[in-house]
Specification:
5-stranded mixed beta barrel; binds manganese (II) ion; elongated; 8-stranded mixed β-sheet; 24% strand; 12 helices; binds adenosine-5'-triphosphate
Length: 464
């Protein structure tokens, strides 16, 4: 009878005694002429399974010496109780097949303890490290939990387009999409590029947000969410910005700003709780190796009520704080991460939701307050991150929305369809965007956003 391969995560939970087959990559191999120990990892868990090669009853073949850190092997043997491996069980090897070697002179992950910067230069191999294995498993768990959260609550997953004809989504600089020959594009009589000859017969970009299309979905299905990649060509080389990142954007009909805040708070707490309930092995590893306060911080967020206050109140606190900021604060400024983190970390010691921002620093579609100065935006601010969610109640009045659009001299030619939501069956509605990688920064304790996505895209960097 041929043995069925089991993942290491399963094997570590098995009762000892039976024949097993494991396949994976060697993390370490050590020993002497009587016995060798191999730590095997197959990506299913942060934990390795120990393979014991006792040469009194295991005869290695000539390939055994080529089994080194990084090589791929298949091991058949008996699962036995373990005393020294740190796990309950280990495998007493009977047969080992070597699939692929990893030349110790050349394999970049031969040694442990590489810097995050170095690992970014070998982004094609870094998933094989403990840290990135943990991060990527948590990333998966969070993506799954996001779909579960919304599915369980009657939200529909709406696939909004990645290529868009609008260039006024109001959320940042855009990447252009074209099949024209950029060395010699066709030109109109006025000298401008003739995009009517382009693939789509018009000028197109990569989306910066699925929100505007999400609103169309909400005005038909009630509650929707998007979860897809978004692209921003802003040259912000910070530990919190990527040029390509994933965003989750729920949009809800008949929901106003207070309920929008309730959903945002409940959603993010659900995700953190899900990580605590389902990713503990990886969190313990990250807590030990990356950020000693991680698990405590996660627990504190799920068990605390977020502070809710207006932008104006927050400015008051910041001004009165006497704290030294790189960017000075006064009413009307766009809050910087340093200000957001001061409120969250120094002043309140917990997450904060700010509302009612000055209209001049927020997007055109936010619902205007009666004071004529502020809009019903809301940002959720988190420890170590600053803004993790940005959202708002949307302006549902066609006239008010048009007045704002005209005030901003926006060209709405390509957004005529968006305005139709306000012409036909308009209703109060709200939504927000959660940056998936910012969530992962929080949940994993990693400090650079380049290290919570498998293949980061940032200015001057898109190699892998
Ligand atoms: P910031 O002020 O931090 O640049 P923003 O206000 O431009 O963010 P929004 O347009 O409100 O961002 O986007 C919603 C969410 O998407 C943000 O709250 C954040 O979590 C995330 N986000 C925005 N820009 C980026 C980026 N360049 N890389 C990763 N996540 C981002
Ligand atoms: Mn924002």
């Amino acid at each position: 009878m041929t043995l069925k391969r089991q993942r290491v995560s399963e094997l570590l939970k098995e009762t000892p005694g039976k024949e097993v087959l494991a396949k994976g990559w060697v993390r370490t191999k050590r020993g002497n002429k009587n016995i060798a120990f191999i730590a095997l990892n197959d990506g299913s868990t942060i934990n390795n399974i120990q393979i014991v090669c006792d040469f009194s009853n295991f005869t290695p073949d000539e390939t055994f010496k080529d089994i080194t850190t990084g090589s791929a092997i298949a091991v058949t043997g008996k699962l036995v109780e373990s005393v020294g491996s740190g796990q309950k069980v280990e495998i007493q090897a009977e047969k080992i097949e070597l699939y692929g070697t990893a030349d110790p002179e050349k394999y970049p992950l031969q040694k442990k303890g590489h810097s995050m910067e170095f690992l970014r230069e070998i982004a094609h191999l870094r998933p094989r490290t403990n840290t990135f294995g943990a991060v990527l498993r948590i990333r998966h768990a969070m993506a799954f939990a996001i779909h579960k959260y919304f599915n369980d609550r009657g939200f529909y997953y709406l696939h909004t387009p990645i290529i868009t004809a609008s260039d006024a989504e109001g959320a940042g600089a855009m990447f252009q999409v074209t099949t024209l020959n950029i060395d010699n594009p066709p030109r109109r009589e006025d000298g401008k590029v003739d995009f009517s000859q382009d693939f789509f017969g018009r000028h197109t970009n990569l989306t910066v947000s699925g929100q505007l299309e999400g609103e169309l979905g909400a005005m038909a299905l009630g509650n929707i969410y998007t979860f897809g990649p978004t692209f921003r060509a802003e040259n912000s080389n910070t530990p919190r910005h990527l040029a390509e990142f994933w965003m989750i954007e729920p949009e809800m009909a008949f929901v106003e700003i207070d309920e929008n805040m309730d959903v945002a708070e409940d959603f993010i707490k659900y995700l953190v709780r899900y990580a605590l309930d389902n990713c503990m092995d990886d969190l313990i590893f990250l807590n030990n190796m990356i950020d000693k306060g991680l698990i405590e911080r996660l627990k504190s967020v799920v068990s605390t009520d977020f502070v809710r206050m207006t932008y104006t109140e927050a400015i008051d606190i910041l001004v009165k704080s006497g704290a030294k900021f790189e960017y000075p604060v006064s009413w009307g400024v766009d809050l910087q991460s340093e200000h957001e983190r001061y409120l969250v970390e120094q002043h309140f010691g917990k997450p904060v939701i700010l509302t009612d921002y000055p209209k001049d620093i927020k997007a055109f579609y936010m619902k205007q307050n009666d004071d004529g100065k502020t809009v019903r935006g809301m940002d959720v601010l988190f420890p170590k991150i600053g803004e993790i969610i940005g959202g708002s109640q949307r302006e549902e009045s066609y006239d008010k929305l048009m007045a704002r659009i005209n005030e901003l001299h926006m060209d709405m030619t390509n957004l005529w369809w968006y305005l139709d939501t306000r012409r036909f069956g308009s209703a109060p509605h709200s939504g927000f965007g959660l940056g998936f990688e910012r969530l992962l920064l929080f949940v994993t304790g990693m400090s650079n956003i380049r290290d919570v996505i498998p293949f980061p895209r940032t200015p001057k960097s898109a190699e892998f």
